[in-house]
Amino acid sequence: STSQIQAIEVDDITAFSSMQLNAMRTDQTAALTTQQVKSLTAAQLNKMSDAQLAALELVDVASISTANLAALNDSQLIKLSSAQIAALSSTQLRALTGAQFGILTEEQIKGIETRDIAGMTNGQLQAMSLSQVTAMSTNQVQNLGTAALASLTPTQFAKFTPAQLKAMTSSQIGVLTAVQLNGLNSSQLQAIDPSDVAAIRANQIAGLS
Length: 209
Fold this sequence. Notes:
single chain; mainly alpha
């Protein structure tokens, strides 16, 4: 029963084999305590089914160590709900490799908390697909770090919608490269807030064709 699962000592959970973990029903997986989930090894988590991982409570997902989170395979990662993704801390999100970040669904990207967006690494942003870039909310875009934003490829940057570009701050506009700006169409350029236009440097303007 679920109450019996919760009564299992942390040391005993750690000793579970992959076969024993896989034999647990999703309601039993959901019943695991935060300390039990936190104690699972990377190898154990990696062998859990997609359905079992998806059944974990939000507080339990937030307890997974960065090393264990990075050990999840692609199939497991994309089955996490947007709410579970939102439950991850900035530190946990930064632990995801660029390859892992690149396979997240659009809904999962939308689920990332605005406060955690600023912590994204250059590698994670550069690994984002074009549809992931477009899926970001204006609040998320506004909180992207300037160094990370400047690291986007021209092709990625050209996928920002007029609304996303309008949401960018003067600091963000000021770090863009001429190549990035040159990839925008007239509608996108016109969408940049007039108060931010002053942040565009002479060398950026000179690069526009």
